[in-house]
Design goal:
277 residues; alpha/beta; 7-stranded parallel β-sheet; two-stranded parallel sheet; globular
């Protein structure tokens, strides 16, 4: 594989960004690990970066010709922040951009979908990663994971809808290939795990693996929106509750071969993830 001289990884202490940083560094690639705290990440030097502080952008971009983009969290309009940054990135010599989006958001869709739509006109080498829901949302520090640990409960408005949950390690592996292959994918990549599961089935697996009862509480769209709005802006809560409603309608009931096709290895299943978390 041929690699850019330096890859800037935004969100380098986060779920996928940390994994992308470590995977690239382990392969011998030069990485700038961007985060608000400028934290060094195993094999990569930290650099200060804050989406909402444009004075941090130019130094982070200096010397980079590839960038992994994790959108600003809890922003209903990331395009307003990200597109000016990407214009600056191109002017600074960045040639390749890999964007983390979502399987639920197509090009031109809401939020990061606007960035997705603009990316091909900004860079000749690009990819948009559209992963399904993260397995880590159920076992890490996400709202669902906390309610599982504290209450033995998952609350969603997904009904019996199914999701092909994907391990963040598999997302990062696809990202690393997209950033370092001689030719970028120049397309969007829907990334899923090997099987689609309802949240009820997830609760059953977690109950079996942990030995502690976990149940799925089905909420309406309105109930889910209000539940989420306790800890985040209402507009963002409404968007997330709307994604749950789309799951209930079957929008995420699909499995792709992206991980195997891009990386050459099969994606991890949810039970295996839960057993080794």
């Amino acid at each position: 594989m041929n690699t850019p001289v330096t890859t800037l990884v935004i969100g380098a202490t986060g779920n996928t960004g940390g994994r992308v940083t470590r995977q690239l560094a382990a392969l011998g690639h030069r990485v700038k690990a961007a985060s608000r705290g400028a934290t060094d990440v195993q094999g990569a030097q930290g650099v200060r970066f804050d989406w909402f502080d444009s004075t941090t952008h130019e130094q982070a971009l200096s010397g980079a010709d590839g960038v992994y983009l994790v959108p600003p969290l809890a922003s209903a309009d990331p395009a307003g922040i990200m597109l000016p940054f990407l214009e600056r990135a191109r002017a600074c010599g960045v040639r390749r951009a890999v964007l983390l989006s979502s399987s639920a958001i197509p090009a031109g869709g809401p939020a990061v979908g606007q960035v997705h739509q603009a990316l091909p006109d900004l860079f000749d080498q690009w990819a948009v990663l559209r992963p399904s829901w993260f397995m880590q949302n159920l076992t890490g520090d996400h709202l669902h994971a906390r309610s599982i640990r504290e209450e033995g409960m998952i609350r969603t408005a997904t009904g019996e809808g199914r999701v092909a949950f994907v391990d963040a390690d598999d997302i990062a592996a696809v990202a690393a290939h997209a950033l370092t292959e001689a030719q970028a994918p120049n397309t969007d990549l829907v990334i899923t795990g090997p099987e689609a599961l309802s949240y009820g089935e997830v609760a059953s697996i977690l109950s079996e693996v942990t030995g502690h009862a976990v149940t799925h509480q089905r909420l309406t769209y309105e109930q889910m929106r209000e539940h989420l709005a306790r800890t985040m802006p209402l507009e963002f809560a409404a968007m997330l509750a709307g994604m749950d409603r789309a799951i209930a309608e079957g929008a995420e009931d699909r499995v792709t071969d992206t991980v195997l096709r891009v990386t050459g290895r099969r994606p991890r299943g949810f039970r295996e993830h839960a057993e080794h978390r």
